[in-house]
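Handout, section B. The chain below has 230 residues.
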Amino acid sequence: MQILRVVACWPLQALIACGRSFIGGVLAGSLLASSAAVAQLPSIEITAIAPTAVQRGSEIEWQVVAGTRTEEIRSLRFSDPAINAAPLTQPPLPFSEEPRVAAGHFRVQVPETIEPGRCEVRAVGRHGISNPRILRIVDRPCLALATVSHDFAHPTPFPADQLLMAQVTPAAIDYFQLQVEPGTPQQIRLTAQGIDSRMIGQLRLLDAAGNTVRESRGADGTDPTLQVPA
C-alpha cells in the first residue's frame, strides 16, 4: 500500500471527492431624466449554503449559512421538483403552543431516482424569492469536515470513494492523506467554481518525503483534477 499526500491551496468553500471514477467597480455616471423615479424593493440574497452536496437517496439537515434578509425564509424551491424540503422548528415561546419556524433551516429529502449532477435551489420568504445557489447531487457518501489540517506532518485522512466538504481558510494550504493500493488508479477532483465559489484552486500530489508527484491548477470556470498513478 502506497501513502500519498494531497495538497489543496485555495482562497473559499470547496468540495473534494476521491474515487475510481469521480474522486469540495463601480460604474459611475449621470443620467438626466424627468421627475419619475424607480425604487427597488428589498430582496433575499443567498451567498452560502451548507451542505453544498448531498448523496441521492438520503435525508439531510440543510441551512442557509449567509446572505441578506434571510431571517424570514420559509421554504425552498429546487430546479428538480422531486427534491422535498420541510422547515425545521424550534420550541414555542412562553404562553404559546405553536412551534416556531427555524428560519433558513430545513430537512431535505433527495430521492434515489435523481441523477447525479447540479441542482439549483432558491429560498422563499417575506422578501420574495432569492438568487439560485448550486447543490451537487452525488452517488457517494458525503463527509463534512469541521476542520482541515494545515500541517504536512499531520494531514487530514482522505477516505477513498467519498466526497469531503470543507470551509477553507483564505490563502491557506490544506493537507490530506490518501492510501492507494498498487495497480488501482484514482482520480481526485476539487470542486469550487462548480458550486458557485470564486475560488481558483490548486491540487498537488506529494509522496511520503514531500516530493511533488503531480500538480493541477484551476482557472476561471475550471476546477483542478489529478490522476493518481497506479
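Note. The CA atoms of residues 58 and 110 lie 6 Å apart. Compare this with the example in section A.
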